[in-house]
Amino acid sequence: MTSSHAADRGTLLILNGPNLNLLGTREPEIYGASTLADVEQLTTAAAKAAGFSTTCLQSNHEGALLDAIHAARGTAVGIIINAGAYTHTSVALRDAIAGVELPTVEVHISNVHKREEFRHHSYLSAVCNAVIVGAGVHGYELAVSYFAKTLA
Ligand code: CA2
What we know:
Layout: E1 2-4, E2 11-16, H1 28-31, H2 36-49, E3 53-58, H3 62-72, E4 78-82, H4 91-100, E5 104-108, E6 130-133, H5 138-150
Parallel strand pairs: 2-3, 2-4, 4-5, 5-6
Antiparallel strand pairs: 1-3
Helix pairs in contact: 2-5, 3-4
Bound molecules: ligand CA2.
């Protein structure tokens, strides 16, 4: 986990789920050439420009993602989450997002609606404030913009 403290609008938790550590190493036609480190840097830079700090975590383990969401209650002002394949399987992540009652933006790098049918349903979307799909890694910056506009 990395943290950046530069500002006073509070901290955005940037969560990336399973296999997103492989970004930039395979399947560039779907996910582009940016690495996970690039994504965390561009998101942190956008957040900093808008007055937020970030805490970034990628995990391949559902429980670690759940723990991070729980820990965000009281420490973060919002969550940006790309839950990877757990998006399509995890009632537990949905319950955690609903439970902490923090504004949350769901991001997917690819346009999941143009892909296999099993990627069309998200367990998370109904408990998120906004959903950004298919904008590539720019989606993370768009999510920061959402918080810049909507948070006091
Ligand atoms: O489009 C997205 O951001 C996804 O959340 C990415 C997930 C996929 O399961 C979702 O349906 C959509 C997969 C992330 C795997 O990322 C890789 C990157 C490079 C090479 C292999 C996997």
